[in-house]
Design goal:
By secondary structure, this protein is α/β, with parallel strands linked by helices. It contains 12 helices and 9 strands. Helices cover 44% and strands 19% of the residues. The protein is globular and about 75 Å long. The site of one magnesium ion (MG) has 4 residues, from loops.
Length: 283
């Protein structure tokens, strides 16, 4: 204590944090209030069947509209959320919002045959309530388990493979789809990943857009292995029509990229689905 140390001596002011950290700290405290202030939302990017271009589902991507800074990309705020407890509230929000939007698109009677995939962080996977949260969201919305998918990256499952395998097995039993995200960026082999009940493999855009002469060999082997393991394959970040054709020839089932459509807010998706599936009673 300053006073006890010597009469009237005044302690020099020491900033509590280094300046490089203050921006992150501001963002973290802003993020803490963002949910209740309705600044967080989901945007949905179409996942299309390469064979005929039909939409089979959407990936839910979190969006933060900061009141002063405008849109802040998930690559910036998700790591901040992950390094604090905020990821649990944000993650739960994504699961519940995605399930409720999906139910809204499908309507009371008609069943529009699309699924929604939600990204899951490692802390969420390793905390015990993920299964309960997912189950509760399904019950609350009336959404069918096989219409909801979870996306996990290799690094997320590899952080604690034993625990991840347990949780994912339970998810699989409920009927939730499981996609291995950003495949090709991690270090694990596809064979090792068979211990997790993934039904879908998403090839990372860096591999899809690789310019080396090994690209085709890599893509073809990954797709062949995934198919042999009974997994569906989604290629991320396809930029050109020719690439879509080439991937389809290689056996890739689905694509998700700006070529097929950007991420859009729920009302736009609802409109899009009404046009695509006019016979269902989803309106
Ligand atoms: P991701 O799960 O691999 O999502 C795909 C990212 O690729 C999205 O970026 C999407 O906008 C972008 N993308 C799609 N098509 C193209 C394309 O043709 N070209 C290029 N260059 N990019 C394309 P976004 O929305 O910025 O999200 C980045 C990452 O943030 C996601 O990568 C995911 O890891 C994470 N993320 C987003 N939402 C959530 C969330 O709700 N929870 C968690 N835990 N992570 C999230
Ligand atoms: Mg993803
Ligand atoms: Mg991805
Ligand atoms: Mg990614």
């Amino acid at each position: 204590h300053a006073k006890r140390q010597g009469g009237n001596r005044i302690e020099p002011f020491r900033p509590a944090f280094k300046t490089v950290g203050t921006d992150k700290l501001h963002l973290e405290s802003d993020l803490r209030r963002a949910l209740e202030r309705k600044e967080m939302g989901l945007a949905y990017q179409p996942i299309v069947r390469l064979e005929d271009g039909e939409i089979v589902g959407f990936e839910a991507l979190m969006r933060w509209e900061h009141p002063r800074r405008g849109a802040i990309p998930p690559a910036e705020f998700i790591p901040i959320a992950e390094s604090s407890d905020l990821i649990f509230a944000l993650g739960l929000f994504a699961i519940e919002q995605a399930a409720s939007d999906l139910k809204d698109w499908q309507g009371d009677v008609g069943e529009v045959p699309v699924s929604v995939s939600v990204n899951i962080s490692s802390a969420q996977l390793l905390r015990n309530d993920l299964c309960n949260d997912v189950r509760a969201a399904l019950t609350k919305t009336g959404c069918k388990p096989h219409h909801l998918k979870l996306e996990l990256t290799e690094s997320v499952v590899m952080e604690n493979p034993e625990q991840a395998a347990l949780v994912l097995a339970r998810m699989g039993e409920i009927g939730i789809g499981l996609a291995l995200d950003d495949f090709g960026t991690g270090h694990s082999s596809l064979a090792y990943l068979t211990r997790f009940p993934f039904d879908t493999l998403k090839i990372d855009q860096s591999l899809v857009r690789d310019t080396s002469d090994k690209r085709a060999v890599l893509l073809r082997s990954i797709i062949t292995m995934a198919k042999d393991l009974d997994m569906k394959v989604v290629a991320e970040g396809i930029e050109h029509d020719e690439d879509a054709g080439e991937l389809f020839e290689m056996g890739c089932d689905f694509g998700q990229s700006f070529l097929f459509g950007p991420a859009m807010r729920a009302p736009a998706i609802k409109q899009l689905l009404r046009e695509r599936f006019p016979l269902s009673k989803a309106s």
